[in-house]
Design goal:
The structure is a single chain. This protein is an alpha+beta fold. The chain is 15% helix and 30% strand. It is built from five helices and 18 strands. The chain has helices spanning 5-16, 43-54, 151-158, 218-229, 321-328; strands at 22-28, 31-37, 62-67, 71-74, 110-113, 127-130, 143-149, 167-181, 198-203, 206-212, 236-242, 246-249, 281-284, 297-300, 312-319, 332-333, 336-337, 342-348. Strands 1-2-7-5-6-4-3-8 form an eight-stranded antiparallel barrel. An eight-stranded antiparallel barrel has the order 9-10-15-13-14-12-11-18. A two-stranded antiparallel ribbon has the order 16-17. 37% of the residues are buried. The model is unreliable at 6-12 (pLDDT under 50).
């Protein structure tokens, strides 16, 4: 059977790139998660995992041991046989590698290698993923990667009903483990001129178009485009309306995990006292730390000179100013809208 050209190109790219540029894509009964490798910390473990994944070693195996919101363990080749006796679960695929302990902590999302406790050189093909910090495991197990997407899936697997020894009542099947190039952060290397784009915010009250101004605040414009292009802003709420002052939105929805969470980070302030915060200007919210802006932004409803030089303005509304009037008319409890208002969809226009 001939593979489609795009799949062949992706496969070729994955083989050509070094381990640090690759990710494992773990597809299970309960969803898919991805993790990147740390070849500088455990090169032999990374090489082993890549080789075995490419050979299909993990396909059809399972996550068979869990601690709710703690860890999930899988990769035992014996679990490929659904008739394997429970007392043998976790005994396969061990004694294959020497330890590679490092300073890579067993934190949320860390991927590490299963070994026989207390036995040197007993690392193997089995692996576990930390859902929460596992400080007692630091320096005792060989960590070799970190989850980049799908921690919600890892959490879900950890909550699978389990009995004695944490063995799941029913194993969560690993349908496949594929090796792919790392996903590229949108607009990461775009030149400032390429950031002069327009974003359409389709909201509960209508569509607002924002022209980004990278000459004002290039990194804030880059950040806004990234969050828009990845769909991060979609379905996020407007949580604050202060009539005559601002409409604020862009905070993460509680409990939501998004594929672009890996690229959310604080941005250094880009303040300019000459850039006035007047009606229609779009600027970035922050905390007390001037370099703490991340995702939340505000639309100016009126002039606020006390914000000039204190907050990073990065765009202006070029269409939909009447939507600001609709926001100002919304009933509020203090500054909290009384009904849900949200960004339905944010789009980078051609």
């Amino acid at each position: 059977m001939r593979l489609p050209a795009l799949l062949l190109l992706a496969a070729s790219a994955a083989w050509a790139q070094g381990p640090a540029e690759l990710e494992a894509v773990v597809s299970t009964d309960l969803g898919t998660f991805r993790f990147a490798f740390a070849p500088d910390k455990a090169p032999k473990h990374v090489d082993q995992f890549l080789l075995r994944a490419r050979q299909g070693y993990y396909n059809g195996s399972a996550f068979f041991r869990v601690v709710a919101n703690g860890i999930i363990q899988g990769g035992d080749p014996l679990l490929k046989n659904p008739k394997t006796a429970r007392n043998l679960w976790g005994t396969g695929g061990l004694n294959l590698l020497a330890d590679e302990f490092s300073d890579l902590k067993h934190e949320r999302g860390t991927v590490s290698t299963v070994r026989i406790p207390g036995k040197a050189g007993s690392d193997g093909a089995q692996f576990f993923v930390c859902v929460g910090p596992q400080v007692a495991l630091d320096g005792q197990y060989s960590s070799f990667g970190r989850v980049t997407e799908g921690m919600d899936v890892v959490e879900k697997i950890s909550q699978t009903p389990a009995g004695e020894n944490g063995f799941t009542a029913t194993p969560v099947r690993i349908l496949s483990v594929a090796i792919e190039p790392k996903k590229v952060e949108p607009f990461l290397t775009a030149a400032p001129a390429e950031l002069a784009r327009t974003v359409a915010l389709k909201t509960t009250l209508g569509t607002i178009k924002v022209a980004l101004e990278p000459t004002w605040a290039p990194e804030h414009a880059r950040n806004f485009l990234k969050l828009t292009a990845t769909g991060w802003y979609n379905a996020t709420p407007f949580h604050r309306i202060a009539p005559g002052f601002v409409v604020q939105g862009g905070l993460p929805t509680p409990g939501r995990a998004h594929n672009a969470d890996r690229w959310v980070r604080n941005i250094k302030g880009e303040f300019n006292a000459e850039r006035k915060h007047v009606r229609g200007i779009v600027s970035m919210a922050r905390g007390d730390d001037p370099n703490s802006a991340a995702t939340s932004f505000f639309l100016m409803l009126g002039d606020a000179p006390h914000l000039d030089g204190q907050y990073s303005a990065f765009g202006r509304i070029v269409e939909g100013l009447e939507i600001l009037e609709a926001f100002e008319k919304e009933p509020v409890d203090g500054e909290t809208p009384k009904r849900p208002l949200q960004i339905i969809e944010a789009t980078v226009l051609p």
